[in-house]
Design a protein that fits this description.
Belongs to the aspartate/ornithine carbamoyltransferase superfamily. OTCase family. With about 325 residues, this protein is of the alpha/beta class. The protein folds into two domains: about 140 residues, Rossmann fold (3-Layer(aba) Sandwich); about 150 residues, Aspartate/ornithine carbamoyltransferase (Rossmann fold), CATH 3.40.50.1370. It contains twelve helices and nine strands. The structure holds phosphoric acid mono(formamide)ester and norvaline (NVA).
Length: about 325
């Protein structure tokens, strides 16, 4: 018998909207179960006996802690794998590393500075591989962002999101989400930092309404949600020239005032106050950045249940 293909989570576009929706719904159900009781009585531990390998070759606070805590809350174990301390750091191939790890752990989260390494790991791994950020994309972040928008404002379909600043990895995953979740996305970036044309084309082919502009005010006008991110990602080198290119893309109170009166402000964090966002906006009434950070945990528990829970993965959010 051939074994079922592992449930990798590499890019949002590998999915249909319904599967992503089911993952988010399960995450929300588990969140309600845990928040709805003073102390969980007999928490179901659907991932008891399973082990997640967290392989992070770049710094992380949210991704590391949310996957680690989420896996434990579902009854599983986590081992932190630092690629620099593995034989990988001395030249062992990704192919061999993947085949060995597959014999030990039940799923792998990879954060890497090399987007091709993620595909390579997934190709050779017989257990699910989850994208924990590459220079190209950050799909788990967007699951949390959709959950956060919808908790505050209801269905995101048909609403307008403005992305301000760098057309980076988080922007790329947002563009894919626009097609899969049916929201309108306007991106304001400097010309040289526009998001990948291929991703924009893919989203538009599926009917997504994507607007590219260099004018932040045009992007934000009437928007239901304003999103930004650092001007210097982990895969970029910081330079005075780079910061200068983004100077007109700071999310200020004045810019937020052009959005819908009840617009949300989101940021995947870590933030650089005074660069991509002012303190006024970050700490202000529109900002939901810490709800957004918390939802990394909840969305990823839905994702872990999907990746590791087998055929009946959606049952693990059921009340006893
Ligand atoms: N937003 C996010 O992925 O944060 P970390 O880099 O701390 O994981
Ligand atoms: N765009 C940022 C996101 C950090 C979570 C980076 O890649 O560094």
């Amino acid at each position: 018998a051939t074994r079922a293909a592992p449930r990798h989570f590499l890019e949002l576009r590998d999915f249909d909207g319904a599967t992503l929706r089911a993952i988010l719904d399960l995450g929300s159900r588990i969140k309600r179960m845990q928040h709805g009781r003073a102390r969980p009585l007999h928490p179901r531990l659907p991932l008891l006996g399973r082990t997640l390998g967290l392989m992070l070759s770049k710094p992380s606070t949210r991704t590391r802690v949310s996957f680690e805590v989420g896996m434990r809350q579902l009854g599983g174990e986590v081992i932190l794998l630092s690629p620099a301390d593995m034989q990988l750091g001395r030249g062992e191939t990704i192919a061999d590393t993947a085949r060995v790890l597959s014999r030990f752990v039940d799923a792998i989260v990879l954060r890497t500075g090399n987007a091709a390494a993620l595909r390579e790991l997934a190709h050779w791994s017989s257990v699910p591989v989850i994208n924990g950020l590459t220079p190209h994309s950050h799909p788990v972040q967007i699951l949390a962002d959709i959950m956060t928008f919808e908790e505050h404002r209801g269905p995101i379909a048909g609403r307008t999101v403005a992305w301000i600043g760098d057309g980076n990895n988080v922007a790329t995953s947002f563009i894919e989400a626009a097609r899969l979740f049916g929201f309108r996305l306007r991106l304001a970036t400097p010309e040289r930092h526009a998001p990948p044309a291929e991703t924009v084309a893919w989203a538009r082919q599926g009917g997504a309404e994507i607007t590219l502009t260099t004018d932040p005010r045009e992007a934000v006008a009437g928007a239901d949600c304003v999103v930004t991110d650092t001007w210097v990602s982990m895969s970029d080198s910081e330079s005075a020239q780079r910061l200068l290119a983004f100077d007109a893309y700071r999310v200020t109170g004045g810019l937020m005032a052009l959005a819908a009166p009840d617009a949300l402000f989101m940021h995947c964090l870590p933030a650089h106050i005074g660069e991509e966002v002012t303190e006024e906006v970050f700490e202000g009434p529109h900002s939901v950045v810490f709800d957004e950070a918390e939802n990394r945990l909840h969305a990823q528990k839905g994702l872990l249940a999907w990746a590791l829970g087998g055929e009946h993965w959606q049952d693990c959010g059921e009340e006893e």
